[in-house]
Design goal:
Order of helices and strands of chain B: EEEHEEEEHEHHHEHEHEEHH
Strand content of chain A: 5-15%
Bound molecules: adenosine-5'-triphosphate, magnesium ion
Strand content of chain B: 25-35%
Strand order of the largest sheet of chain B: 8-9-10-3-11-12
Distance between the termini of chain A: 15 Å
Largest sheet of chain A: 2 strands, antiparallel
Largest sheet of chain B: 6 strands, mixed
Number of helices of chain B: 9
Radius of gyration of chain A: 30 Å
Helix content of chain A: 55-70%
Structural class of chain A: mainly alpha
Radius of gyration of chain B: 18 Å
Strand order of the largest sheet of chain A: 1-2
Oligomer: heterodimer
Number of strands of chain B: 12
Structural class of chain B: alpha/beta
Shape of chain B: globular
Helix content of chain B: 25-40%
Largest interface: A-B, 25 and 35 residues
Chain lengths: 343, 250
């Protein structure tokens, strides 16, 4: 492919008529959407002015989506505190979910039948009952167990032998927030265990054999060889779980946690500005989701080390490449051969 | 170095090894040949305890594999002791099995550092030496997926050698390679044989066996059918089975 000056072969790209029609419809739809988002509607009241003794009146208008109210509340401290609460819930319950999920996945894959069926039952139970119920269950756990104590199992059945190392009052430990963390975390572990399991079984058995033949113990093989490779499979769906947890954590508002939605509810039940506050909350969810998606991209890239001969470009690399591509197109149109711009 | 006396092994009731007898002398190369499914891999895996044999006596360097004899009784080894035993036996696999998430250098150092407790600096020096020895200096930072099959297998050999094993097991090390890459791996193995390493090699490369092996064992149906000097066994086989096997592979 040598293109030198005037001898350059002109390439005419194929035009796709269907794409143009589709793009046209999409453009119209987007225009309508933007228009309605930023439209104004009459509020029902009338504004009157008296200028030079002449009184003129016109109907008052306001943003259909009350953007001014959204703006007023967007960075108020209750909303920001709610946001922090939401992030705390998400992070803590995901940590519990991931750690416990990996443990359950390893148990599930164990050759010990008791371990694997225990793991199976865990997943069965927590996936089979609504999170909503689990939230209330942990909030009201004190109804079943007023106090918890940590000691030797079953010894309390034998008189005088029960020694508790530590015990606590369920009501004081299971506040709405901690009940939500426990409920969301344990529930998440059930889903994470399935994700972790699929990652673990995706690792070639030969890797385990090689590690074993070097003299590594089971634990070392798992930690140094299997888990790092399983990560490549585990990370993408885990990213989705984090994003989904961000929003699922709003269920905690039902048991009285003042996270984003809880805060919004509290505010709009006092002033009836329902839509603006739901928009405030939703915008925050969108912002955090966007940030998480970017983080997920870099994490995936990191753990794909070795699996791909050339790692995928970062968004910035892609942008510069696209920009250079477009630049090249323009230059070529003006008669400059493509390869004089490349490099 | 390795002594097998009547070794039996079965999977789910199917006998794969039916009383294997074999002797490997220190510093010698032993080739194991035989048709597919005859139990060659199984025998190697028993020798480094990746599998547990069911009956018979299997000794490596005088020690019973997986057991300790004390006061006339056999005590099963615990996991830690088994790992220590395995770390002294190097194994090279048909499909290389390099750790995909680690660079070439890390593949070679990980065993030294994590199993033998060697310091990373010392392990690095040794790894570079070994890479040079298998003709791959300069590839330290590559990932296995960026290497050809022959290069990967040479890294795998270096990884096993890094543990300073007293015995090396090769399970069809060249079977997964393109013909033009077989030579580079065999050259490394010949070099290793010349340096006095005790090796057991499962192979279909009859020329290699003839040239390098001190002894050849022909395994068929879970028993050693024939064994001896390769020049005799491979040119004038006495059993019908080895005759027909050789006529197929040669
Ligand atoms: N984990 C296992 N479970 C059940 N059967 C097995 C297992 N591993 C091996 N076998 C069986 O044992 C027999 C011997 O297998 P082995 O891998 O030792 O043969 P091989 O001589 O190495 O053959 P090849 O040349 O194809 O590698 C085969 O019939 C195989 O199906
Ligand atoms: Mg085999």
């Amino acid at each position: 492919m040598t293109t030198n000056g005037d001898d350059a072969v002109k390439v005419v790209p194929v035009r796709h008529a269907g794409q143009w029609v589709g793009a046209g419809f999409a453009l119209i739809f987007i225009a309508m959407l933007v228009h309605t988002l930023f439209s104004k509607v009459p509020t029902g009241s009338v504004i009157c002015h008296t200028v030079n003794g002449v009184r003129s009146c016109r109907p008052e208008v306001a943003w259909r989506f009350s953007w001014n109210v959204v703006g007023q509340y967007f960075t108020t401290s209750p909303v920001l505190q709610g946001l922090v609460r939401t992030l705390e819930l998400t992070v803590l319950s995901m940590v519990i979910g991931i750690v416990l999920g990996v443990v359950i996945a390893v148990m599930r894959l164990s050759t010990n039948r008791l371990l694997s069926s225990t793991a199976w039952s865990y997943t069965w139970f927590f996936r089979g009952t609504p999170v909503f119920v689990q939230l209330f269950f942990w909030l009201y756990i004190a109804l079943l167990y007023p106090t918890f104590s940590i000691g030797l199992p079953f010894f309390h059945f034998i008189p005088f032998t029960h020694i508790a190392f530590w015990h606590f009052d369920a009501n004081s430990v299971f506040t709405p927030f901690s009940a939500a963390v426990v409920a969301l975390g344990l529930n998440e572990a059930a889903y994470m265990s399935e994700i972790a399991r699929s990652g673990l079984i995706a690792v070639d058995e030969g890797q385990i054999e090689a590690a074993t033949s070097l003299g590594m113990t089971h634990g070392q093989t798992l930690r140094l060889v299997v888990l790092p490779q399983a990560m490549r499979v585990i990370i993408p769906p885990t990213g989705n779980e984090v994003i989904s947890m961000l929003k699922t954590s709003s269920l905690a508002s039902a048991i009285g946690v003042t996270e984003l939605i809880g805060t919004a509810t509290n505010i709009y039940s006092a002033n009836y500005k329902i839509m603006p506050l739901l928009i405030v909350a939703s915008l925050w969810y969108l912002i955090v989701t966007t940030i998480l998606s970017v983080g997920q991209f870099y994490l995936e890239r990191h753990f794909s080390k070795g699996a791909l001969r050339t790692p995928p470009p970062t968004p910035i690399q892609r942008l510069t490449r696209d920009a250079r591509g477009i630049l090249m197109k323009f230059r070529t149109r003006r008669g400059v051969p493509a390869n004089s711009v490349a490099s | 170095m390795v002594e097998a006396r009547g070794v039996y092994k079965s999977y789910a009731g199917v006998e794969v090894l039916k009383g294997v007898n074999l002797t490997v002398v220190r510093g010698e190369v032993t080739c194991l040949i035989g048709p597919s499914g005859s139990g060659k891999s199984t025998l190697l895996r028993c020798i480094n305890h990746l599998e547990k044999h069911d009956a018979g006596e299997l000794r490596v360097d005088g020690h019973l594999v997986g057991y300790e004899a004390r006061d006339g009784k056999l005590y099963e080894l615990n996991d830690k002791q088994i790992c220590a035993e395995r770390s002294q036996i190097g194994m090279v696999f048909q499909r290389f099995n390099l750790f995909q998430h680690l660079t070439v250098l890390d593949n070679i150092t990980i065993g030294q550092v994590k199993v033998k407790g060697v310091s990373p600096e010392v392990a690095n020096v040794k790894a570079r030496e070994l890479l040079a020895r298998v003709g791959l200096d300069g590839k330290e930072k590559h990932y296995p997926s960026q290497l050809s099959g022959g290069q990967q297998q040479r890294v795998a050999i270096a990884r096993a050698l890094a543990m300073e094993p007293k015995l090396m097991l090769f399970d069809e090390p060249t079977s997964a390679l393109d013909p033009e890459l077989v030579g580079e791996v065999l050259d490394v193995m010949k070099d290793l044989a010349r340096s006095g390493m005790t090796m057991i090699v499962v192979t279909h490369e009859m020329n290699f066996a003839r040239e390098v092996a001190n002894t050849v064992y022909f395994l068929d149906g879970g028993v050693i059918e024939e064994s001896g000097d390769p020049r005799v066994v491979l040119t004038e086989p006495s059993s019908e089975r080895l005759k027909s096997f050789l006529s197929k592979v040669l």
